[in-house]
Amino acid sequence: MTSLPANISPLRQRMIDDMRMRQLAPKTQDIYLHIVREFTRFLGRSPDTATVEDLRRYQLYLVDHGTSAVSLNHAITGLKFFFTVTLDRPELMVRMQPVRVPRILPVVLSPDEVRRLIEAAGNLKHQTALSVAYGAGLRASEVVALKVTDVDSERMTLRIEQGKGRRDRYAMLSPVLLERLRVWWRVARAQGKMPDGGWLFPGLDPLDQLSTRQLNCAIHAAAEAANIDKRVSMHTLRHYVPFRIMSGYGLAPAID
Fold first, then answer.
1. Which terminus of the chain has fewer Cβ atoms in its 10 Å neighbourhood, N or C?
2. Average pLDDT, the chain
3. SS3 for 78?
């Protein structure tokens, strides 16, 4: 029998195994483990001894301490996995109910603000990466995970592998965005920063991809440099695609 690391209890290891069996994303696994750890700290004893009333008190504790609706629902989801799957005690969750999340309209930039934002990005790589997020409606994690081979200039698509929900899909590629990608490809190749079949947006080491943290820092710095007085994030650019469609702007990015 394989011994467990000294800092991992059998119960924690069982939960880890349950999450791995269901192929939950590593980030989701970390979040769920953190949620159970916080509940254990509140409880003051092993979580497998919790009662329905303990869980009810914990939800009230979170509410009283100003936990947002989104974070509260995340906590409930993580605890539900632990008690329903790992402990096989779904009845313990009967008093913990998800709460309604207020609908908040996303920040929307004008075409001019988008143009200023991208032009203010520190270098061509960041400008092109932000253009992809804007033009194709991609998440930061999807942008940095792109490889050169994911660009299909004949079908005018970008292949998104293992996006949210671990699903592959295709994003539309406009002629303007394709030309921007070609310019970036030529420059990066000339500088020896883009190996064959490598990352479309490599990090400092061409063998590594640009990180989501670097991309988020780039957009925040660009927003400040462009004097855009709005809460700008990668989600801001991504949400702009459906806004353009609803507003009649079409799919082609307003970047010339």
1. N
2. 87
3. helix
The CATH number for 10-93, chosen from 1.10.150.130, 3.10.20.80, 1.10.860.10, 1.10.287.110, is 1.10.150.130
Question: Which two three-digit tokens encode residue 179?
Answer: 């030309």
Number of helical (H) and strand (E) elements in the chain, helices listed first: 11, 3
Nearest CA to 120 out of 41, 223, 3, 45 is that of: 223
What is this structure's pTM?
A: 0.65
Mean pLDDT is lowest, of 149-153, 162-166, 183-187, for 162-166
Is a pLDDT exceeding 80 seen at residue 194? yes
Topology given in CATH for the domain delimited by 111-247? hpI Integrase; Chain A (1.10.443)
- How many CB atoms are closer than 10 A to CB 109? 22
